[in-house]
Specification:
about 260 residues; mainly beta; about 10% helix; about 30% strand
Length: about 260
């Protein structure tokens, strides 16, 4: 009988070519949801994805940069929810705490939090700082785990996009200047001036008993319930993951301190 690890390796190898045929061209997959959509009620039924309880009334998040997070809508929040019903959530925040993992790629954590019934809850999404394990029969050996997370020039603006995941699903982060400013520096060492605003898109994993490969993040998974790839985010041919990749706008934020968020001195 094959072990779980052997089965996962076979799935990675045999599925990759088939999955690659499903990648959609960038021109057909961009979504231009570039304006914040206000929450229409303070009561959100359902439950936001919870990773841990980190205090009562105040945040224990340290490092990076924290700013107000604005959910896109009640219906979208209901799709994002997962584990327990909310009463009257407030004080939505997002924290970016990223560092360069190598070659201008950034790993670290993105934390989306809120307070409900006096308790703060946080969903923590991660991109690893290391490299993929090198295993026979598997793709993307020795690639940086955060290889798709970097700054680049788009329409003469210095922007950032990248993938992050937790046990429940994936998010993408897009950062663009709040005011028009020419790109400066380079992808590995950007010169960031002026405030940045951001967009969070999400994709929940399907409910399944199938194991998530311990060897690869979801953006290196070529098919199945844990495939969170987006051609737009991977190729940098646009700013937002396409709807055909299964992503929806979760919310927006502004006034992020990019120097602190990316630990740039």
């Amino acid at each position: 009988m094959k072990t779980v690890n052997e089965t996962l390796k076979m799935i990675s190898k045999s599925s990759a070519l088939l999955a690659l045929t499903l990648v959609t061209a960038c021109s057909n997959s961009q979504q231009n949801n570039t304006s914040a959509l206000p929450v229409t009620s303070t009561v959100i039924p359902g439950a936001v994805i919870i990773d841990n309880t980190i205090g009562s009334g105040s945040s224990s998040i340290t490092g990076g940069s924290t700013t107000t997070f604005k959910p896109a809508s009640l219906s979208v929040m209901n799709e994002y929810v997962a584990t327990h019903p909310l009463n009257n959530p407030s004080n939505f925040k997002i924290n970016l705490n990223l560092s360069q993992a190598g070659s201008g790629r950034y790993g670290g954590t993105v934390t989306i939090s809120y307070i409900d019934n006096g308790i703060q809850y946080s969903g923590v999404f991660n991109a690893g700082m290391g490299k993929n394990q090198s295993l026979k029969g598997m793709y993307d050996n020795d690639r940086l785990e955060a290889d798709y997370n970097y700054w680049f020039t788009y329409e003469n603006q210095l922007v950032f996009t990248g993938f992050f995941e937790d046990q429940y699903g994936a998010i993408t982060i897009t950062l663009v200047p709040q005011t028009t400013q020419p790109a400066s520096g380079n992808d590995g060492e950007p010169i960031l001036t002026g405030p940045y605003k951001g967009y969070v898109y999400f994709k929940n994993f399907a409910v399944t008993t199938a194991p998530h490969s311990p060897y690869r993040s979801c953006w290196y998974t070529y098919m199945g319930p844990y495939d969170c790839r987006s051609n737009v985010i991977q190729t940098k041919c646009g700013l937002f993951p396409g709807s055909e990749a299964g992503y929806k706008l979760l919310g927006t934020f502004s006034n992020i301190d990019t120097s602190a968020a990316f630990n740039i001195n």
